[in-house]
Amino acid sequence: MFEASGLQTDFYELTMMNGYVASGMADRRACFDLFIRSNPFQGGYALAAGLADAVRFLKEVRFAPEDLDYLKSFGFFSAEFLDRLRDFRFRGSLLAVPEGTPIFPRAPILRLEGTLLETQLVETLLLNLVNFQTLVATKAARVAGEARDGSVLEFGMRRAQGANGAFAAARAAYIGGAAATSNAYASARLDIPAKGTHAHAWVMSFSREIDAFRAYAKTFPDNCLLLVDTYDTLNSGIPNAILVGKELRAQGKELAGIRLDSGDLAYLSRQARKMLDDAGFPKAKIVASGDLDEYLIRDIREQGGRIDVYGVGTRLVTAEGDPHLTGVYKLAAIQEEGVWQPRMKLSENIIKETLPGIKQVWRVFNAEGVMEGDVIALDEEGDPRRPDGRLLGINPLAEHQRKLHHPAELQPLLEPIMKDGEVIAPQPSLEAIRARAQKQLARIDETTRRLANPHIYKVSISERLLELRNKLRSEKRPEE
Amino acid sequence: MFEASGLQTDFYELTMMNGYVASGMADRRACFDLFIRSNPFQGGYALAAGLADAVRFLKEVRFAPEDLDYLKSFGFFSAEFLDRLRDFRFRGSLLAVPEGTPIFPRAPILRLEGTLLETQLVETLLLNLVNFQTLVATKAARVAGEARDGSVLEFGMRRAQGANGAFAAARAAYIGGAAATSNAYASARLDIPAKGTHAHAWVMSFSREIDAFRAYAKTFPDNCLLLVDTYDTLNSGIPNAILVGKELRAQGKELAGIRLDSGDLAYLSRQARKMLDDAGFPKAKIVASGDLDEYLIRDIREQGGRIDVYGVGTRLVTAEGDPHLTGVYKLAAIQEEGVWQPRMKLSENIIKETLPGIKQVWRVFNAEGVMEGDVIALDEEGDPRRPDGRLLGINPLAEHQRKLHHPAELQPLLEPIMKDGEVIAPQPSLEAIRARAQKQLARIDETTRRLANPHIYKVSISERLLELRNKLRSEKRPEE
Predict the structure, then answer these.
(1) Cα dihedral B267, B270, B274, B276 in deg (nearest 10)
(2) Given CB atoms, is A230 within the 8 Å cutoff of chain B?
(3) Most buried residue, A185, B119, B200, B281, by CB count within 10 Å?
(4) B222 and A11 in contact by Cβ < 8 A?
(5) pLDDT tens across B154-184, in order?
(6) How many angstroms separate the CA atoms of A169 and A182, rounded?
(7) What is the distance in angstroms between the Cα of B363 and the nearest Cα belonging to chain A?
(8) Cβ distance A49 to A169 under 8 Å?
(9) Sign of the Cα pseudo-torsion (B377, B379, B381, B387, in order)
């Protein structure tokens, strides 16, 4: 667990906060959106995670006396500002997409309202927490999706960013669809199933492989899964495992299975399956590990690999292929004399333009229960459907692209989580989050779930939001 | 900071430990090596980091009563084993390459000696801590190397693996050569310089950019660095910054500089430099950020970019391009009836073969003080030079490749850090580690420091180690 210090932030948030205090703006109400700019891994979706840690931080964030001493030492923070930090609390509101919900670019997944002071401070850590866990949950969903009937174990602790990085990765991987983790600490503290048997060192610490296998079988007769690639998989490891399997059976026990950790896993798993079947062990499982990711798992499956359990480590916890998520946190509105004024960032790069105003995201499902698109509308629009039940969505990047949805089901995605600094929504269990993720992922069209070059899910905006956006665009340009 | 729980490990370490207890092997002395298999980023070296956290873990690791309850709940751990964990301490020895030392593949950087029980437990977290910090320190060294006279700020908190991942990344980046961090918490707790001014949100929270700049200048007249790309860098941001610079000068203050965060940084920095110079602000600094890494920095420099300070975030803390290090932890020797028996892992893939025996690494420097190669020798060889002062190194992957070094200077790299569970070496300050890194990096030949396709630094083995390796190879093959 991280310390919920007010210093858990980028230094510039603190200098800006001091600026807001000095300019008499610190207590103005502001609304910030957190959203992703693009899907990771060139895929068609992301899977939201990290909210629980974000809520803990918002609830607990404080400045300790030594934190204030640290800031004071710079010499340029004002006494008034430091004084305000002394009893700083986050007293704002939070709406958020629940963890385990598929999300798409540009639609806000967190919406904060509060004073400029408090909403600015928390930017950095909210991004940190949501970016990383969402990234790993998404990777896990991709990996588990390709594993099909096989199950996925998260094995990445030794390659994660520190002990707590590994902890967060285990949690996010479980949300995304991993069935278990190798991380005993995460298992104990988060109640995630733990898995693991032995390493090469076990085999090497005996003079002979067969002695190592026999000793393991003696210790764990009911959970005997043997790593067979220390010396020679096909000529030594598997024959020795079969021998031990027969010895176990003579005692009324069954060999749980074998693990492959090197070599060509498609070829070796086919050979291993045949050797185990021929020897009378059709129920012994084949676990495989070694540089696995969603692409390699798909290839192994398509090449007739016979793997029951995939151990996925490094490439899962480091989100290989795209090790960062593009989450950003942008000012959407600010009060001037008590009236909300929408704000947007312009950019020569239209992708970096933001959407102004206080917004809600509406998810459209079709008659088959499949997600059809998200429509971002102004909060004040309420249910944005026309009286005839239809809902117009406009592509914010290409206004001529419009779609008239006829939702069979319409869900507002941003749910109230905190109000005036207090948590007002019950926090779901990790099991419930994981179950939600599995259900929701199944409602994404399979063409959008494709690993690469997926069908682009439509995230559009309402007519009123388009009008507001275009009005602000024309006011800000050409110069200011 | 992470909790130094004994559960901070892969589950299979615990099952193996139980197996060692059941097999009467738990108290046999073992020696493990931690080393990297290849350099990250297709580069020529890595920079060791993470030892301080590793030492803290070894010193503090304990099993709390709830940790034992968790293990008991599985039903298959023996009472004898759980009993041993109750008063578990790491009571072994540690030798290590000091943080801030360049390292190369295959040469051990940590060497642990202790009971099989204790050395097995700590494998996972040692790998986790050393892998990640070494990876980020190496990336920082590459980035800072390309920045030349420019300085590098670590800006990556929002894209790191959680709050503690960001903390460790800030530390490692500083060791590798970053001059400061944006992470206030890491700055406060580790005494790293902090930097940062304001974000787009500052500008957007005012009606006009010029108002935002004036307010910032008023708050921080001595540290006024303005972000100029919120609306239009060349037509609005820089002219407004110059205007505020003139207003500051009228009060006897100087504009510190500007920051660019989007667009083509080579082009914009040249334009910005010219505009600032023409307006009479030749000393105003240009800070740039936005998807920077060592390659982009080199290109910008070669294209005449005029950047004084590079803010490097995402690609530094996530080690973009190679988000994991290949550190492994392998059994090198084990005692049988009080006598050390060397051990090695064979593999069809020769790269995965390990080096047997208790070893020391000797670093050869030539007469110019440049690193010439590392020679791995058996510990019992002591100083492995021949009587004539020469030292033969043999390529372990190609025995016919031999080099007779004539070292001008020879250093044993593995230094005693812990003995019988106690820390026996003073821990250097972060400043000292960083200074060591800068000095040592300069002693790597520049052809080995090249970003890609570098000259391969020679890591060889002594004749006696070669003999031992080949003897074990022939004993283990073909079958067992």
Answers:
(1) 100
(2) yes
(3) A185
(4) no
(5) 999 999 988 999 999 999 999 999 999 999 9
(6) 11
(7) 27
(8) no
(9) positive
In chain B, the residue whose alpha carbon lies closest to the alpha carbon of A124 is B158
Give residue A477's pLDDT: 52
- B354 close to B340: Cβ distance less than 8 angstroms: no
Using CA atoms, how far residue A249 sits from A239, A242, B254, in Å, is 15, 10, 84
Which of 242-301 (B) contact A at CB < 8 A?
262-263
**B418: nearest Cα among B120, B94, B102:** B94
CA dist B80 and B78 (Å) reads 5
pLDDT tens sequence across A6-19: 999 999 999 999 99
Cβ distance B225 to B287 under 8 Å? yes
Strand partners, B151: B309
Contacts of A471 (CB under 8 A, 6+ apart): none
DSSP state of A194: B
- Residue A435 pLDDT more than 50? yes
CA distance A162 to chain B (A): 5
Calculate the CA A215 to chain-centre distance: 40
Rg, Å, chain B Cα set? 26
Half-sphere exposure of A313 (CA within 13 A, CB side): 23
| H-type alpha helices, B153-288 | 162-176, 184-190, 200-204, 209-219, 238-250, 265-278
Maximum C-alpha span of chain B: 85
For residues A333 and A341, the answer to whether their CB atoms sit within 8 Å is yes
Number of residues written out for chain B: 480
Inform me whether the C-beta atom of residue B325 falls under 8 Å from chain A C-beta atoms: yes
Q: What ipTM was assigned to the predicted interfaces of this complex?
A: 0.92
pLDDT at site B477: 52
B218 to A23: CB separation less than 8 angstroms, yes or no: yes
Q: Can you say whether the dihedral through the CA atoms of B41, B42, B45, B50 is positive or negative? A: positive
Nearest to A398 by CA among A455, A443, A353: A353
Percent of chain B with pLDDT over 70: 99
Backbone φ, ψ for residue A417 (5° rounding)? -115, -45
Answer yes or no: do A5 and B185 touch at CB < 8 A: yes
> Residue A94 and residue A31: Cα distance in Å, rounded?
10
Q: Provide the terminal-to-terminal Cα distance of chain B, rounded to the nearest Å.
A: 45
Strand order in the sheet with A415-419: A339-342, A327-336, A29-36, A110-115, A93-96, A415-419, A422-423
Is the CB of A163 less than 8 angstroms away from the CB of B3?
A: yes
B62 strand-pairing partners: B5
Q: In terms of CA atoms, which chain B residue is nearest residue A473?
A: B231
B64: left (phi over 0), alpha (psi -120 to 50) or beta: beta
Mean pLDDT of B346-363: 88
- CA dist B215 and B211 (Å) reads 6
Cα B330 to Cα B345: distance, rounded to the nearest angstrom: 8
Contact flag B5-A185 (C-beta cutoff 8 Å): yes
CA distance B120 to B116: 6
Q: How far apart are CA A7 and CA A59, in angstroms?
A: 15
Task: Please give the pLDDT value at position B480.
Answer: 37
What are the chain A neighbours of B325 within 8 Å (beta carbons)?
159
Confidence band (pLDDT; 50, 70, 90) for A480?
Answer: very low
CB contacts under 8 A, B 87-126 vs A, are 116, 120, 123-125
Distance separating alpha carbons of residues B441 and B446, to the nearest angstrom: 9
Closest Cα in chain A, distance from residue B391 (Å): 31
Coil vs helix vs strand at A164: helix
